[in-house]
Amino acid sequence: MAAKKASKSTFYATGRRKEATARVWLSAEGEKSFSVNGSPMAEYFSRETSRMIVNQPLELSKMTDKFQIKASVTGGGHSGQAGAIRLGISRALLQYQDSLRPSLRRTGLLTRDPREKERKKFGRKGARRSFQFTKR
């Protein structure tokens, strides 16, 4: 698992989803805030569903106002990035408090979603789409 303790009060973890990779730092010290790629989370994720996905592990563990969270995410779209940050936060919370493992595991927040985009095949229009059939 790609999670390690950065310092006594800072916890680091990596999360992935689709083509997105997120690096997440949870800090128990300092001002309580949430930034994604240097901008506030509400500004970075304009959709309410993306913000809800990112906050799921914090709401489950009742620690929404306990950490300063900094996330750096690359690749993929907004949906994949939100899922990657969610996994990163879940893994970092385990570094903070290992007793959260059963509740996070039960809700599926520690499972990496393995679904990836299927590659385009030679001679076809897409991954599965073929040309229109005509009977000659």
In short:
The chain has helices at 41-44, 48-60, 78-96, 101-106; strands spanning 3-5, 10-17, 20-27, 34-36, 39-40, 68-74.
Q: What is the overall silhouette?
A: elongated
The helix-strand sequence is EEEEEHHEHH
User: What is the class in the CATH system?
Assistant: Alpha Beta
Strand content: 15-25%
The main β sheet shows up as: 6 strands, mixed
Report the C-alpha radius of gyration, rounded.
18 Å
Biggest sheet strand line-up: 1-2-3-6-4-5
What is the mean predicted local confidence, pLDDT? Answer: 90
Number of strand segments: 6
By CATH, the architecture is named: 2-Layer Sandwich
**CATH-derived topology:** Ribosomal Protein S5, domain 2
Helicity level: 25-40%
Contiguous uncertain segments of 5+ residues: none
Query: Structural class of the helices, strands and pairings?
Result: alpha+beta
